[in-house]
Every structure is written in structure tokens, then in C-alpha cells.
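Next up, sample data.

:::
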Amino acid sequence: MPVLTPTPTALAGAAAKAAGPACSLQRTGSLWQLGIKAQELTTSISQLAEQLQSDDDDSRSQALAELEAALMAEEGNKQALAAKADATCWVIEHLRGQAAYRQQQAKRLTELSRSDAGRADALEESLVLVLTRLQPAATRFSFPNHELTSRRSQSVEIDDEQALAPEWLTVKTTTQPDKAAIKQALKAGQQIPGVQLLSHRSWRIT
């Protein structure tokens, strides 16, 4: 009976299984697979980004831990670390570009909504004008599928606010911290109770 000798590939696969599940952001393969692996890497990062926005604290923590672990795992391999960091930057740029596009679409839809509402108001005003001319005393109009109802209200219209006596005026005062002056004083070494000067470093992907 012939004896089956495990191939190097089989031995490598068995060793990998024995070592446990691989990180979802691992990038391996021959040179011709780099494009596919890069796409798989960005897809995995995109999925982690979705988890970072989850309402579940455990899901967010798990996603952050996996992303950190994937980057820290390449601490001694600058090329692999750069590849994963670069893939993460690609996902960040994609998400920001998508956000900008959706913001533009939201603005366009807001303008369309405002236009639709304006036409509806104008049409309603014309309808009421015609109906009240035909029936000046009516306060309600009934149609086969709709009803047009009204209610009386009162409001004050002021033609000249300057002509009002002081008794008809209310005084409103507002205060807010002068952050520019506070910042200058703190930088000069002055101590201001309840205030501290914080330093921040901002990052930008180019």
C-alpha cells in the first residue's frame, strides 16, 4: 500500500491551522496577488470602520482592538506596516469623499424640498383665496377625499419698535467667554481659575 507523504504546502496549511485563526487584515501571497490582497485589505478595514460606528460598545471595542492589533503585529516589518497604514488611508479618503458627495446631495435635496414646499404653499393660498371668495363666511370646506379647515389666531405686528415706551420693552443680555483674551493671558503665564490651555496636534492625509 503506497505511503502518502505530505507536501510542503499541506504542512504549511496544517501549521497555520494549529497556530489559530489569522488576523482578518493579514496580507500574504505572491506578487501577482498583490492587487487582490490590497483590495481584500481595504475591504476588511472598511468593515472594521462600519463596526466603529456601531451602537454596541463591545462591537466598537472589538473593531478598534482588531485594527490596533493588525497594525501592531507589523511593528518589526516596515513594509507590511506601511501597506496596512496606506490601505487604511485609502478607506479614510473614500469615506470622506463619500461624505462630501452625500452632503452635496443632501443640499440639493434640501433645495428641492424647499421648492416643493413653496409651490404647495402657493397653491394652497390660491385655493383658499378662491374658495373664500365664493363662500366668505365659510370656516371649513369638505371635498370627496379631503377637508380644508381653519382656526382663528391673533398676533401682534409692530410697525415701529422705536416708538414703543420702555414699559413695553424687555431687556436681554448675554455673556460668553472671551477665549482670545483668555488664551493670550494664559500664554503670558497668567493663572485663571477654571481655565486651562490645551495643546492639540491635528493630522491630515495627503
User: Anything to note?
Assistant: The beta strands are 140-142, 147-149. The chain is about 55% helix and 5% strand.
